[in-house]
Amino acid sequence: MARVNENYLKLPGSYLFSEIARRVNQYKKENPDADIIRLGIGDVTQPLAPAVVEAMKKAVAEMGSPDTFRGYGPEQGYEFLIEQIIENDFRSRGVELAVDEVFISDGAKTDTANFQEIFGINNILAVSDPVYPVYVDSNVMAGRTGMVNDKGQFEKIVYLPCTEENGMKPPLPRTRVDMIYLCFPNNPTGMTISKEELKVWVDYARENRSVILFDAAYEAYIREEGVPHSIFEIEGAREVAVEFRSFSKTAGFTGTRCAYTIVPKEVKAYDSNDQAHSLNPMWLRRQTTKFNGVSYPVQAAAAATFTEEGKKQVREIIDYYMENARIIRKGLEEAGYKVFGGVNAPYIWLKTPGNMRSWDFFDKLMRQVHVVGTPGAGFGAHGEGYFRLTAFATRANTERAIERIRTRM
Ligand code: PLP
């Protein structure tokens, strides 16, 4: 008899975005003329930059010619892309990386979900609350947690509440933890932390021999000085941190798929005899066994984001979304909402008026002004009473949505 992995049965049935889709579809069925504007799901709307499209076309043509055809590539990515990443995303900020410390992949979702595989099953993990759900769910599937309680929290996970009082910054855990997921700029709160604040985490990890899994998928949206773009800008981080990056939100690759993960050779975890093992060769072993690499045309397209033209075009797209973020923030503040984020991130996290429950606010916003966002409760117990709007819609839809909220909510 085949048995299932019972860890999967611990996961609550309805995933956040399917519940949102269900409610929107139901409402549209009852109100077919409703002109619904979506500021909910974190997908981009602007097309790929012309330099990226050109590079991809050229690479596809190469694949169609016997002289330039390429078969299986290196699972960890082509050096031409890795070198550009090191030069542009890290060396420019004073961070040195070796070519074999960068692993190209098809997504930060994939990597943040899979990286836990190379850690022991009894490790205790800490996550912010609210949190991007993938970190939690992938650890539940692996069996690193207990059951879920009625607040949606799993036994054996240490939740770090991000509240108005602590400026949406996760506090250090009160009990020892082994794996720490941090995400800055943050999804869903849109908040960042300073270098000094991040240093506190690096010091904690060094003292406790923990590993920080740092998700920097929104790094390109940082506008303010002093906000770290990479955890490796922090002294000592090479010993204790892994960093996830993505071309998804940086260059509109959500449908094209390219990302990368940095695993410095110094980062270690320990076996049951307290012997240290570098995570870099373990991740290489994992990827070469289970992953086939990203296709050549996609890696060539990603490399084009680092050409002069590509950089300029990508910058313009990010500026476009950040102008949306500014419009959302300003409009909501003028309408009397308390808002977080939206300054160094494409997410705006608002406090629901009168402590309204976040799913009730979702329904009210959809029914009253036909705007769809994401209820904070979907990101964790401490997301209750908050609501996420994204800056990824078109300018026209962003302006219309905010006007409706300002005038009719
Ligand atoms: N990490 C965070 C915090 C995200 O919000 C997302 C996407 O929404 C991802 C990772 C996934 O990125 P990718 O498209 O590279 O899988």
Describe this structure in words.
- InterPro entries: Aminotransferase_I/II_large, DapL/ALD1, PyrdxlP-dep_Trfase, PyrdxlP-dep_Trfase_major, PyrdxlP-dep_Trfase_small.
- The modification N6-(pyridoxal phosphate)lysine is found at residue 249.
- Pyridoxal 5'-phosphate binds at residues 72, 108-109, 132, 187, 218, 246-248, 257, 292.
- The protein is α/β, with parallel strands linked by helices and 409 residues long.
- The chain folds into 2 domains: 6-47 and 309-408, Aspartate Aminotransferase, domain 1 (Alpha-Beta Complex), CATH 3.90.1150; 54-306, Aspartate Aminotransferase, domain 2, CATH 3.40.640.10.
- It contains 12 helices and 15 strands.
- The chain has helices at 16-30, 50-63, 79-90, 108-114, 133-142, 195-208, 248-251, 279-290, 296-303, 308-334, 358-369, 395-408, and strands at residues 37-38, 102-105, 125-129, 157-161, 179-183, 211-215, 241-246, 259-262, 268-270, 276-278, 339-341, 347-351, 371-372, 374-375, 386-390.
- Strand 3, helix 5 and strand 4 form a beta-alpha-beta unit.
- Helix 3 (79-90) packs parallel to helix 9, helix 4 packs parallel to helix 5 and helix 10 runs parallel beside helix 12 (395-408).
- The model has no long low-confidence stretch (mean pLDDT 97).
- The structure holds pyridoxal-5'-phosphate (PLP).
- The site of pyridoxal-5'-phosphate has 14 residues, from helix 4.
Please mark out the parts with pLDDT under 50 across 5 or more consecutive residues, or reply none.
none
Helix content: 25-40%
Q: In order across it, which strands form the biggest sheet? A: 2-8-7-6-5-3-4
The 3D shape can be described as globular
What is the CATH level 1 assignment of the largest domain? Alpha Beta
Total domains: 2
Question: Tally the helices: what do you get?
Answer: 12
CA radius of gyration: 21 Å
**Please, what is the CATH homologous superfamily of the largest domain?**
Type I PLP-dependent aspartate aminotransferase-like (Major domain)
